[in-house]
Amino acid sequence: MKTRIILWLFSILLLPVSSAFAADAINTGDTAWIIVSTALVMVMTPAGLALFYGGMSRYKNLLNTVAMTLVAYCLASIIWVVWGYSLAFGPDVSGLIGGLSHIFLNGIDINHVTGTIPTLLFVLFQLTFAGITVALVLGSVVDRMKFSAWIVFTVLWVTVIYCPMAHWVWGGGWMGAIGALDFAGGNVVHINAGIAGLVLALMLGKRIGYGKEAMFPSSVTLTSLGAAMLWFGWFGFNAGSQLAADGVAVSAFMVTNTSAAMGALAWMFAEWKGTRKPTVLGLASGIVAGLVAITPAAGFVNLPAALVIGLVAGVLGYISVSKLKHRFGYDDTLDAFGVHGICGIWGALATGIFANPAITEGASGLLYGNPMQLVIQAVSIVATIIFVALGTWVVVLVTRLLIGGIRVDEETEIEGLDSAVHGERAFEVG
């Protein structure tokens, strides 16, 4: 009897402790995976994207492209921990923006948990998304934008465009509330960056000699290496967005690789048919097109859907880069709009078609009896385009006022920004 009483008292004393622990438990497996995912996504910007964009730029602007990529990531890192995270994930204000309660990460310490991972880790994971999104915009404007203007633009754009978009979709805002599906950044990252890049390119104007003289990439080798690093890092980008080491994360990992491979092959064969030459640059671009398109769908679709998504993305990307921009005459230098904007729109729509409730419960697309999901996706795309286009236009105007112009002078552009701005050269020529 005494033994039973002691055991009963012990269980009563232990119950609140174990219950409290269960409610706030950090899952070490999930945490380890998201730490790795965060590192993978971080590498995408200052290494993968810098090489990918740097290799596509002309030799006299390669270092400037790398510098602008690096400084974008550095600025986003500071903005995010000082005020950006709070604006994106702070307490919701009318479905439009987060509150200011987490400025300087106020109220968040090592004991706070988001899901099954430390909140500080969630902050870091989301920071890497902000960093790569603004850096993607750069692809539309290399060769001709002032370095100082890029710095000001980055600070303003991350604050007033990226943070609200992230809140709308992932932070408790209106877009998530209406049921828009964006697993890892179709609207938030790719459509956002692609539309912003197009607006900035149009406001900057075309490069000197555009359409009249050949503008060769400085190193397709660097670009292909950058594409491979982006592909590698994208596993953290997509599979990490599940915020857990589970079956959905593995499925996202699988469909990400599949779409990338199919996108590369589709671009290669489309180009081969169109020009009789299957280029390495086309293969590298197709990889990225497939990755972009699968991003919003990664946690919602199965393998057959990934094959279709990658196939369409590769063909769409090739058409937009080889025909669309030449027909309309805009100078999207490294095709940020053509790849991220166009393929991002396709990926968001494809999510509304192929979302499979067997992958993620409650996420059903057109093919699974929910045509309304496609309508919701279309609404989210249109809203993103309008907000980002108008918002970026305002940001550019403000940047122009603060800097006194956003484009380098003609002499600097002809000389090359590596030498004129940074006093360095990527290659010894001649």
CATH C-level label: Mainly Alpha
For the largest sheet, list the strands in their spatial order. Answer: 1-2
| The CATH H-level homologous superfamily | Ammonium transporter AmtB like domains
Order of helices and strands: HHHEEEEHHHHHHHHHHHH
Which CATH architecture is right? Orthogonal Bundle
Structural class by helix and strand composition? mainly alpha
Instruction: Give the mean pLDDT.
Output: 93
Q: Please, how many helices?
A: 15
The CATH topology corresponds to Ammonium transporter fold
What is the share of helical residues? 55-70%
Distance separating the two termini: 95 Å
Tally the structural domains: 1
Uncertain runs with pLDDT below 50, 5 residues or more? 5-23
